[in-house]
Amino acid sequence: MIQAADLPETIPVFPLPGALLLPRARLPLHIFEPRYLAMVEDALKSRTRLIGMICPRDTPNGEKRLNAIGCAGRITGFSETEDGRYMITLSGISRFRVKEEVQGFTPYRRCAVDWAPFSRDLGLAETDQGFDRSEFLQILGRYFASQKLSSDWDSLKEAEPELLVNAISMLCPFSPEDKQALLEAPSLTTRRETLVTLIEFALRGGSAEDLIQ
């Protein structure tokens, strides 16, 4: 288990629109671009094997800037295909706040980051005192039906609240802005409430743009 003292000041970052990684959750990734193949190889050589997942955002001038907050994951699964692509699994460790982008000679982006605001991420699974599984699964079932999504409902009925809320947050086809809101939620309760709001809004036929406005 990674401790706060083990977290590096600078990490490689993977800007991927719409991808969401949360602490204690797992994210499978298919790596094929040369710069990100190099990033994975370098991360595997490091002591912590961390990669920061972060969502880029568009600016009026078309520049791809990074959001202020991302989540770092440790490479816990790795395989290589015959044509040189990598299949990896990131296990979420902690969110971070970007202090500045670090210039250097790597083909991928790196950032100096601050872990302190998210020290709780390194602890045990969060609890959600207001979680009503029956009510949550009911609205989730309506949403999955509207999106023509399938799931293992037996597993959802047995999953711990944090695992359930985080997995649904990561899997649902929300906009990058909505995914960022779920990432930045200060607690599991807030994330669950945000998730339910997004699902209810989608069921009413609203768009993410309408919700933001």
TrEMBL record:
PROSITE patterns: LON_N. It comes from the Bacteria. Residues 11-203 form the Lon N-terminal domain. InterPro entries: Lon_prtase_N, Lon_prtase_N_sf, PUA-like_sf. GO terms for molecular function: peptidase activity. Transmembrane segments: none annotated. Keywords: Hydrolase, Protease. SMART domains: LON. GO terms for biological process: proteolysis. The keyword Hydrolase applies. This is ATP-dependent protease. It comes from Fuscovulum blasticum DSM 2131.
